[in-house]
Amino acid sequence: MSSFLIAILVIAGLLAVWVVSSYNGLIGMIEAVDNNKRQIDIQLDRRFKVFQSLIEAVKQYMDYEKTTLKDVVALRNQATAAQASGDEKARIAAENGISKIASGLSVVFEQYPDLKAGQNVLQLQEEIVNTENKLTYSKQAYNDSIERFNAKKKSFFESMLVKFFAAQLDKTYEYWALLEGQVKVQEDYTVKF
Amino acid sequence: MDFKDYHKTAGNWRLELARNARKTKQVIALFFLIYCFVGLIVDVVVLQSMYPGGTLSVYLKALLTFKAVPYATIIMLIIAWISLMITYAMYDKIMLLGTEYREILPNNAQSLQEKQLYNVVEEMKVASGLKFMPKVYLIEANYMNAFASGYSEKSAMVAITRGLMEKLDRAELTAVMAHELSHIRHQDIKLTLMVAVLSNILLMVIDVLFYSVFFGRNDGDKKRDNSIVMVVMILRYVLPLITVVLALFLSRTREYMADSGCVELMRDNDPMARALLKISEDHEANADAYQQEYGRTPHEQVRQASYLFDPSSIDPIKSLNNLFSTHPAIDDRLKAIGFKKK
Q1: Residue B92's pLDDT band (boundaries 50, 70, 90)?
Q2: pLDDT of residue A15
């Protein structure tokens, strides 16, 4: 009888250890997802600032900038408004608009040989590539952390734990993705000279 | 060896990462078992001196059922833990020993390339979700190589030679840095240090044991169990070999993991493959010059296992035996990320 009791106690102890470590692991993953989402915001904010100063810097070479700057500011305002009202889709659309202007900027550089030859512009291009890459990678990191969380959350045993602590653990995150209609447009998009 | 000689497939980095993580766990478990086994053998010898007359199996049974407390095993585990903590605390910057280096910061980059180097490290840091920015060092050397060290905010660093920075394009540079950051986020430095420290303790213990069994006081007619002497003798000659082979197997496993980790971060296996081929081609083309340059750099051995590309593989004799190499062969590394030789 006593050995039976000991066996029960040992199993209960192991179960408690598993519950605590799984719970803590899931909480860590949720926080990572939230943090990675903020990382996208940080990179978006950085891009806005970098592009504004870039446009300021190339102003002397082209009149292109006036409309571009206006566009960037307008899109940025849309994005901020959408973020404030919680409309995730409109926000993604506005941010993607800014991305297109970035590739437009690269094309503009091609049209000004003396500008292109300069070391400054190489630096600017490096800055644009760096900025866009960071933004892309932060989105990728966000999606990766969602993948890890979802895989854990939906796997067997953990899913029961999630149901039990639904308030704390049962979070649903949407992958960062293009809108349905936009996928087609982006796929067909090519740079025209 | 040209990029055109390889078939490109997508490769499956998730599978590769999982497989190598499993291998690591097996190696660590095996290592732990060997450590405990040696501890138990020490305990057996101690027990025998206190209660002579038993056989190996009797002593082992008593220890494993806790009828006798395995003091030596416990003491060895505590010593291991303490020396690991000391090593982790002291281990900082050893890796740059002997090289001529300079830290790259966002505001002290002297050329566009250096700025680009810092940028790609930052990009990969964002992609991997690391919570700290590793220090970036540029080593003034012509050979193409890079390495990473550390695992925490304080000690994390990546270092790259000027030769590598100048000869790779942006994507290839990113791939190399992704490989190095993967070593940091997989905590490979901690693992390598752990295996090195434990191996050394193990070898010291078995040496002491060997001499005490053979040359220690043998109180006249006390009969020793010959099988204990046999086990100690075999261990003394086999253990050094086993620890080295295990450590090298682990090192190769972690290289594969870092390559797959690079593909995970970049979602593209092309740049890593191109960089690896470029580096090995370059090492072949300049074998003599580089060997001299490596030879001139003091303390080269502290970096060998951490390098992106193992310089000793230029030397054909050393690279013959894959069992004793810190890095897998280039073809095997390419195959693991999805490039098959035509």
Answers
A1: low
A2: 93
B73 assigned to some structural domain: yes
What is the total count of domains within chain B? 1
Domain that holds residue A105: 19-183
Beta-sheet strands, E only, within B124-239: 135-139, 146-149, 157-161
Interface test with A, best of B14, B123, B182 (most A CBs within 10 A): B123
Nearest CB to B126: which of A32, A39, A119? A39
Domain that holds residue B244: 12-92+189-250
The token pair that represents B286 in the structure block: 């300049």
Q: Indicate whether B329 belongs to any domain.
A: no
Following DSSP, what letter does each residue of B167-194 receive, concatenated?
Answer: HS-HHHHHHHHHHHHHHHHTTHHHHHHH
Partner A contacted by B126 (CB < 8 A): yes
Chain B's closest residue to A42, CA to CA, is B126
Does some domain include residue A14?
no
Give domain status of residue A104, yes or no. yes
Residue A83 lies in a domain: yes
Side chain identity, residue A33: V
Q: Are B110 and B132 in contact (CB under 8 A)?
A: no
* Catalytic-residue membership of B123: no
Sign of CA dihedral A130, A135, A139, A145: positive
ipTM of the complex in this document: 0.74
Give me the amino acid identity at B100. Answer: E
Tell me the CATH number at A41.
1.20.1440.20
Q: Choose, out of A137, A139, A148, A155, the residue to mutate when testing the contact with B (most B CBs < 10 Å).
A: A137
Under an 8 A CB cutoff, do B128 and A130 touch? no
The model's confidence at residue A10, banded by pLDDT at 50, 70 and 90, is very high
**Number of domains making up chain A:** 1
Which region among A62-66, A126-130, B44-48, B125-129 has the lowest average model confidence (pLDDT)?
Answer: A62-66
- Taking CA–CA distances from B111, the nearest residue in chain A reads A123
Q: Which amino acid is at A90?
A: A
Query: Under an 8 A CB cutoff, do B170 and A39 touch?
Result: no
Q: Are B127 and B262 in contact (CB under 8 A)?
A: no
Q: Is residue B334 part of a domain?
A: no
* Residue A170 is assigned to a structural domain of this protein: yes
Domain-embedded: residue B282: no
